[in-house]
């Protein structure tokens, strides 16, 4: 691939002939379109960020585009004094961490056990898991189940129902199968190693990239999801995760900010506050995703091989 | 007599073999305990809840006391006015996605493949991936801020250009356009991954041969790259077709508002409205089951078609 590119460039070094000009135009054209597309992905957030730290008067007059006008941090100050927003951030963090931990334990155990040929009935059990990937019972049977288990309005309804994902299990199982040679298992077994030892001493150290990938799939998925919270968290508003809180604040606009109303109240228009709120929810992801994207790319490609 | 001893010996041998097997492998079963328990409680018990679709479920009576009515609930919901609307909208939104969102990652991947400056390629790719990592609430909130009638930056720019503001999220037809554009925007970057991987696997000799034949870059792209990633495109298309009855509840919910009602009632939205907001559990479960069954059927058909076309299929 890269060879062919290098040659193509050398081929054209003979001077300003027609083909070189054409090539350059093609390069610029492609680069331009890609640049426009990628800017369209980032600029909205630059705009919202600029809005969130601008003076309200400029925002209301539609004077803020990509750079803040009249810098202020009142909106963020208000968010950090709004107990319910801080609480929802806390809920999201606790739920995401617990969810990812439990999900990883279940997924690792299931993937390891179901790749071992000694296990009887592994085909049946693998099928049993994969059936749930293609056929979901639907929102209401899930809701009635959570209700019958007495989990509505508790931490557990946000953690347990989704924490073992068949898709993630499939990726990890395929990876255990292909990345770790069978001979390694056999020699370890002959040396008298138990399955727990093999899992912790051989398989896990050899599978760090896929472990990172799946953990991130779980964590980002949990962080971003809100429809289950919308279904299950009704009365106990203390358990609203950040995304649900954001939904009520901005999309449904049925709730207002609770921050202490002081005599020097500067923000009257919701625009700036909403912008700050969006940034508050998006910034953790925006800061982290450039570093974790490569794991996501790997996981997506492994998953695509046999989805 | 002799026969008896043999069979007893065989039995003990079998018993011993089982004991040895369990001694060596009990840990495998111990590992499976929690995942299987999770599966049974949260997935298979949930399947049992599907029986609600076949009974006149009353919360006070519970699962066992409610009256069994067969397919009556289905007959009722199929006749319901909102049902047809929901099916139409679900199909409409997904077909629009298929037409407009599906080709975009392929085009972008082909363009990215032409870029030779490494840092530029890497930077733009990272930027393109951003929407994939954000939740639909964040995207919806950003959309409301950007496309607002009086406060949106897009309408401010339009006003600067001298035109009247466009009700992007406030009028049904425009809402549909905005919904589709946001869908394209959200999926175009992440979708390139599969296609870029397929392009890397194209045999470099094919490009050499094409160049010898005097093919320019456009012709190489058209006659080498595209045919080589054809099977990937077909697989992705079939997978997409399999989802035509599905659709993200979170996406619709994050983008809908009280002003637009024409296209926002899709099946998942109706499930939510009937089930959670009006507590019509039987109707809602039946509707969800209808969607699930069609979804599975479509995936199976898609898989069959893929295999008929000589591809690997999905299952």
Distance between the termini of chain B: 54 Å
How many whole angstroms does the radius of gyration of chain B measure?
Answer: 28 Å
Give the tally of structural domains of chain A.
Answer: 2
- Structural shape of chain A: flat
Q: What fraction, in percent, of the residue positions of chain B are helical?
A: over 70%
How much helix is in the residues of chain A? over 70%
User: Which strand order spans the largest sheet of chain B, edge to edge or round the barrel?
Assistant: 1-2
Largest interface: A-B, 103 and 96 residues
CATH superfamily of the largest domain in chain A: MetI-like
Count of DSSP strands of chain B: 2
The helix-and-strand class of chain B reads mainly alpha
**Low-pLDDT runs of chain B:** none
Q: What's the end-to-end separation of chain A, in Å?
A: 27 Å
CATH topology-level fold name of the largest domain in chain A: MetI-like fold
User: Biggest sheet of chain A: strands, sense, closure?
Assistant: none
CATH superfamily of the largest domain in chain B: MetI-like
CATH topology of the largest domain in chain B: MetI-like fold
| Low-pLDDT residue spans of chain A | 259-266
Q: At the first level of CATH, what is the class of the largest domain in chain A?
A: Mainly Alpha
Roughly what is the average pLDDT of chain B, rounded to an integer?
A: 89
What's the short story on this structure?
By secondary structure, chain A is mainly α. Chain A contains 15 helices and no strands.
Write up this protein.
The complex is a heterodimer of chains A (307) and B (315). Chain A folds into two domains: 2-72, no CATH class; 76-305, MetI-like fold. In chain A, helix 9 (166-179) packs antiparallel against helix 12. Chain A has 307 residues and is mainly alpha-helical. Chain A has 15 helices and no strands. Chain A starts with a helix and ends with a helix. Chain A has helices spanning 2-11, 18-52, 56-60, 74-79, 83-115, 122-134, 139-148, 156-159, 166-179, 182-190, 195-206, 208-224, 227-232, 242-251, 270-305. Chain A is flat and about 75 Å long. The longest helix of chain A has 36 residues, at 270-305. Mean pLDDT of chain A is 86; it is low at 259-266. Chain B is mostly helical and 315 residues long. Chain B has two domains: 2-57, no CATH class; 71-308, Orthogonal Bundle (MetI-like fold), CATH 1.10.3720. Chain B is 75% helix and 1% strand. Chain B has 15 helices and two strands. Chain B has helices at 2-48, 62-65, 72-79, 81-100, 103-114, 118-133, 136-146, 153-160, 172-200, 204-212, 217-228, 230-242, 249-255, 267-277, 281-308; strands spanning 55-56, 67-68. Chain B has a two-stranded antiparallel ribbon. The mean pLDDT of chain B is 89. Chains A and B meet through helix 1, helix 2, helix 5, helix 6 and helix 7 of A and helix 1, helix 5, helix 6, helix 7 and helix 8 of B.
């Amino acid at each position: 691939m890269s060879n062919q590119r290098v040659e193509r460039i050398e081929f054209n070094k003979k001077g300003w002939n027609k083909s070189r000009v054409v090539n350059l135009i093609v390069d610029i054209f492609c680069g331009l379109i890609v640049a426009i597309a990628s800017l369209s992905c980032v600029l909205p957030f630059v705009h919202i960020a600029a809005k969130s730290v601008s003076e309200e008067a400029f925002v209301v007059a539609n004077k803020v585009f990509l750079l803040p006008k009249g810098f202020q941090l009142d909106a963020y100050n208000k968010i950090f004094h709004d107990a319910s927003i801080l609480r929802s951030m806390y809920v999201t963090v606790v739920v995401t961490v617990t969810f990812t931990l439990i999900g990883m334990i279940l997924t690792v155990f299931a993937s390891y056990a179901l790749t071992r040929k000694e296990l009887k009935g592994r085909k049946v059990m693998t099928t049993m898991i994969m059936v749930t990937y293609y056929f979901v019972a639907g929102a209401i049977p899930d809701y009635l189940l959570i209700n019958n288990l007495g989990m509505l309005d508790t931490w557990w309804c946000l953690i347990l129902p989704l924490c073992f994902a068949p898709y993630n299990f499939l990726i990890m199982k395929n990876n255990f199968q292909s990345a770790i040679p069978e001979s390694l298992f056999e020699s370890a077994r002959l040396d008298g190693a138990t399955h727990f030892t093999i899992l912790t001493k051989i398989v896990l150290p050899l599978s760090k990239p896929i472990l990172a990938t799946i953990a991130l799939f779980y964590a980002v998925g949990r962080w971003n999801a809100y429809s289950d919270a919308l279904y299950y968290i009704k009365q106990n508003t203390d358990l609203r995760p950040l995304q649900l809180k954001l939904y009520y604040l901005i999309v449904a606009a049925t709730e207002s900010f609770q921050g202490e109303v002081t005599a020097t109240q500067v923000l009257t228009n919701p625009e700036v506050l909403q912008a700050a709120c969006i940034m508050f929810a998006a910034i953790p992801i925006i800061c982290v995703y450039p570093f974790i994207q490569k794991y996501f790319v790997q996981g997506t490609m492994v998953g695509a091989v046999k989805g | 007599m002799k026969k008896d001893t043999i069979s007893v010996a065989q039995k003990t041998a079998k018993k011993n073999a089982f004991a040895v097997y369990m001694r060596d492998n009990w840990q495998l079963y111990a590992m499976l305990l929690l995942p299987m328990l999770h599966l049974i409680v949260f997935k298979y018990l949930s399947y049992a809840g599907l029986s609600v679709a076949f009974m006149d479920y009353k919360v006070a009576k519970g699962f066992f006391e409610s009256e069994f009515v067969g397919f009556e609930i289905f007959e009722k919901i199929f006749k319901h006015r909102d049902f047809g609307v929901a099916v139409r909208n679900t199909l409409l939104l997904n077909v629009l996605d298929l037409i407009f969102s599906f080709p975009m990652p392929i085009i972008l991947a082909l363009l990215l493949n032409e870029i030779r400056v490494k840092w530029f390629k890497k930077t733009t790719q990272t930027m393109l991936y951003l929407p994939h990592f954000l939740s639909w609430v964040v995207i919806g909130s950003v959309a409301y801020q950007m496309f607002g009638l009086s406060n949106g930056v897009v309408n401010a720019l339009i006003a600067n250009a001298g035109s009247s503001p466009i009700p992007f999220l406030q009028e049904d037809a425009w809402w549909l356009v905005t919904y589709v554009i946001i869908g394209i925007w959200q999926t175009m970057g992440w979708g390139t991954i599969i296609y870029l991987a397929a392009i890397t696997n194209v045999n470099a000799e094919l490009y050499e041969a094409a160049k010898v034949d005097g093919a320019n870059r456009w012709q190489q792209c058209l006659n080498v790259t595209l045919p080589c990633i054809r099977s990937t495109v077909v697989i992705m298309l079939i997978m997409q077709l399999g989802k035509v009855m599905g659709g993200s509840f979170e996406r619709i919910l994050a983008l809908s508002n009280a002003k637009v009602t024409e296209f926002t009632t899709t099946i998942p939205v109706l499930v939510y409205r009937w089930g959670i907001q009006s507590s019509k559990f039987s109707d809602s479960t039946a509707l969800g089951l209808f969607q699930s069954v069609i979804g599975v059927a479509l995936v199976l058909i898609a898989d069959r078609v893929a295999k008929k076309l000589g591809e690997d299929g999905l299952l």
